[in-house]
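Re: beginner question about structure tokens

> Can someone show what the tokenized structure looks like for a real chain? I only ever see the sequence side.

Sure, here's an example I had lying around. Input first:
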Amino acid sequence: MVEFENGNFKFTFPNPKNVSEFSMTLFKGHEKKEICALHLSEEKVIPKSNVIYCQTEHSNSSTTFILKNLERKHIDIYTYCLEMFLPPPYIDCRLKETYLYIQDKEDCISLGLMSWITIGLIMFAMISCVCCVVACCLRNKKQQCESNSHEYNSEYMPMAAVNAAKKPRI
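And the corresponding structure tokens:
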């Protein structure tokens, strides 16, 4: 079982029943590079870690491999191997594979910033469009009011209003 808790990945596997000596190993990649191991013999637990980001925890019922402070370079297939030594017969490696993907923290921040910038630009464009529509409607309404106030010279042919000619003063 794989859990993600407080920035750490925990691979938890049940201990084999009625076995007095066994070994659990966590490998990384297709080349199966050993990164963590735990050997139990006669109630003596011997943890082994080849990397600083892996730790082991053992209880009576399960063994947990904890991967801490992972980065994008740790993306890979992780393989769990269980070997049982005593009582006989010896059982070779039982494998379980898990693909682990880690997203960079910088990616999260930059994606968040980009999404806020995009949302801001979209909101600005929408507000600008609404303002333009309102301005056009008000302008058209004002022109309609001005055209309705003119008196027409004829019922049959609308014409612009003409001011009465002024009489010259002598």
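Each token stands for a local structural state, so reading them left to right follows the chain. The first strand starts at residue 2 and ends at 5.
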